[in-house]
Amino acid sequence: VEIVAGDPSVAITAPTDDAVVAPAGFEVTYDVGGFLLNSASIGGTNQLGVGHALVTVDDSIVALDADGRTFVANLPAGTHELGVELVNNDGSSLDPAVRDFVSVRVAEPLVRITSPEEDEVVSGSTVELVYEVENFTLDPINVNGAPEGGRGHVHVYLDGLYQGLNATGSFTIPGVSGCAHTLRLEMALGGHAELGVSDEVQFSLEPCLEIESPLPNAVVSGPAVTVAFSSPGFAIDGTLPAAGGRYVTQYVDGAYVGTSTTAGNATFTVVGTGTRALELRLAEGPAALGSEPA
Hints:
Strand content: over 45%
Helix content: under 10%
């Protein structure tokens, strides 16, 4: 066995003093100097400079460790004293005792979306998300690293689709289409393990366009197909494009095929057989007859 010379020392590296940690548990890491941690010698004959560590909470032993890291779980809410002490193989204290302590506060983390608000109508196609957290530290540096109790980031979801991660309190989602949406945040530790702590809001966009029929993957009879739609915040009154009116442009499989100035429906006059993607887009202002507006 290698004997490490020098004065033994121990320093808790995580969590930090006065950190907020989750009741579900948190990782404890510590650095050791002048002392060899050896799990194989636990309970054996004492050897100078060799032993293991006792991890304590409020002076009660919660773990024996010889790896420099362990996991502590299921602490009651409130403030606790977390300690790490180097001990001999038989568990007795060194002389003098070598210990380090930090204070931790156990509390449930919370995340709260502050913008957009529930049922808010957002103008335009860009959504500016703002949120706040409690009992949790946003850490933009360690998003891909080892998890640390009480520190991490959030995962952003729009209509169930992942948009990205964030640890600054604000996040921009550009190019949002459609009318009604659900925005959800999930709290996550470094390494992206989600905590099961989330918040979500419902909001809508205006102006927007939403196709009501036919439904996706519907079977329809051609050659003409009429698409019913709604366009909140964008009134279509029948004014011609050349006169500056509002209207929808029509696309089949991504190719422009025409316009409609009728509120609530647009007829595709010739749609080929087979699977076709029909698309409508809001438009306003002059357009030459038969040409896609600029």
